[in-house]
Specification:
The chain has 244 residues and is an alpha+beta fold. It is built from six helices and 17 strands.
Length: 244
Amino acid sequence: MGKMERLDKLLALHLAESRKEVSSMVRRGLVLVNGVPAKKADEKVDPELDSVSVEGRELTLRKNLYIMMNKPSGVLSATRDPRAKTVVDLLPSQWKRRGMFPAGRLDKDTRGLLILTDDGDFAHRMLAPKSHVWKLYEAELDGPVGDLEREKFREGISIGDVVCLPAELFLPEDGPSSLVRVQIREGKFHQVKRMFQAVGREVTALKRIRIGMLSLDASLQPGECRLMTEDEKQAVFAKEDGTL
């Protein structure tokens, strides 16, 4: 059981309405708690357990949201942009609350696993270099790479005047390939693409498939998303042996 909260306080936050307007909605019978019209605007509800709907639309009242998205190509990893569609624009209406943002970015044409949340502490912990959260990508290249490039990635690739931390390049068992996986623990601007450029290859398609030990849900189609479980939130920070 979670912490009990006043209904009018929660609805004012999630609907961006005044408490006076929320009280009016309650009096008019527009607010249901667990399928029953709310009697008073200041009644207590459990945001983690109780179902609350306004005018037939169910709200997600949890203190924080953690959403896994399969980001499609052509969409910006941003909260809003006047010229282009963003990942926040793709969220279902019940999850479009104030403060939602992508925790870490994927380039506009990069696809795959993206976490959206309104929990700044969670995002900071995930992105902080000292957390060493690895991100695994699948890359299609304009030509094959092999053992030489793998060793360069392990040593730390120089991009411009910056030296990247050692990264892991995974090759198929049958040798050099133009379809590879690469694992990094930083998030510099266009980092994966620039690392491959440094060894003479262009990335033609890029998809993130794992953050920490959290893998992209294969059932999510591009543009689809769902709430993460508690275990999945922990998996972001887990090592391969399961420890945190």
